[in-house]
Design brief:
The protein is of the alpha+beta class. It is built from four helices and six strands; from the N terminus they run αββββααββα. It has two domains: 2-84, no CATH class; 89-139, no CATH class. Helices cover 36% and strands 17% of the residues. The mean pLDDT is 76.
């Protein structure tokens, strides 16, 4: 539905509209050409036989037809649904590792601040655990 509304809005110029009135005649005017085309969206006219008519160019008629209350409510519902979505948490490491995965962070090519986990990810806690184990074994 949003694709139909988007294409109709672009065909209608994708601009703001405002109501203008003079001589007690209400007209809907776009801000194309800085609003110099008075009543270019919708205006009342009188036919040759005196019947009142609405003059609405086709792109604007198509947009008005596409922008039904049902279409607007569907867009609002889609917006509220998307607003409620939250991204998934990052994947957990394989069972038994117990540490979350983090990206690479180097202190130069010879002294990494992180070491590679068995599953290909890196975490600084593995390096800290290595140093801690080395200190415990020396003591």
């Amino acid at each position: 539905m949003s694709d139909v509304l988007k294409s109709a809005a672009m065909a209608a110029g994708g601009v703001e509209w405002s109501w203008w009135t003079s001589n007690s005649v209400l007209r809907l005017t776009s801000n194309l050409d800085h609003g110099l085309r008075d009543g270019d969206v919708l205006s009342a006219v009188k036919s040759m036989d005196g019947t009142p008519l609405l003059a609405i160019p086709k792109p604007y008629r198509d947009f008005i037809e596409a922008a039904t209350p049902a279409a607007i409510l569907a867009l609002i519902a889609e917006n509220e649904h998307l607003r409620g979505l939250k991204p998934d948490l990052p994947p957990r490491p394989p069972e038994g590792y117990g540490l979350p995965r983090y990206g690479l962070r180097w202190n130069g090519p010879t002294e990494p601040l992180a070491v590679q986990m068995d599953d290909g990810y890196w975490t600084p806690w593995h390096l800290a655990a290595q140093f801690k184990n080395a200190l415990v074994s020396e003591a």
